[in-house]
Specification:
about 180 residues, two-stranded antiparallel sheet, binds iron/sulfur cluster
Length: about 180
């Protein structure tokens, strides 16, 4: 199991960069962010790239048995199985999409420039300083490259799905 840990280095570096970016936004808008423990508004059933799936599974493997049992009961339900009593039981290890939800995401769709964020946040904020915008395409390009490198470093038979449902991802290392 521990031979896989070094393979997360680049992914963890990207997670760190994202967290630093989010911390910067929290500093600029300290009283405009509603995100807090117990809010599960942006939690949903996700599909993950293999590098995020393995990273989450690695963390899942280290959870206490009683928490794993509760997650097991959630598997039949809709939504994310890691959400227990409206709290994420793997919060420190949550995927990048969960870290960026709620914050200003910049994207271009059909030639239109869009900024998406949780409507509970940034009320009455007329515009966002450029440095607070997370460019979705740039982030996805980085994550896809790290994922390709990760897949290249691990041999799996059968080959991995391009995207893995979170309900399967958490068990990928225990197979
Ligand atoms: S991984 Fe955690 S933060 Fe992400 S959707 Fe699931 S419960 Fe929510």
């Amino acid at each position: 199991m521990d031979r896989i840990k070094p393979l997360f280095k680049d992914y963890q570096a990207l997670v760190k960069r994202v967290d630093v970016h989010i911390a910067g936004i929290q500093k600029i808008f300290p009283d405009r962010i509603a995100c807090k423990k117990g809010c599960d508004r942006c939690c949903r059933s996700l599909t993950l790239l293999p590098v995020e799936a393995f990273s989450l599974s690695y963390a899942h493997g280290r959870l206490p048995e009683d928490i794993k049992a509760k997650i097991g009961l959630n598997l039949e339900k809709a939504g994310c199985p890691l959400l227990i009593d409206r709290e994420c039981v793997l919060y420190p290890f949550r995927p990048i999409i969960c870290r960026t939800h709620g914050y200003p995401i910049y994207m271009e769709k059909r030639g239109r420039r869009l900024i998406d964020f949780c409507p509970d946040n940034f009320k009455d904020v007329a515009s966002f300083p450029k440095e607070t915008l997370l460019h979705l395409d740039q982030l996805n390009t980085l994550l896809t490259a790290i994922n390709r490198q990760f897949i290249g470093a691990i041999e799996t038979d059968p080959p991995l799905l391009d995207r893995i449902p979170i309900s399967e991802a958490i068990f990928i290392l225990s197979h």
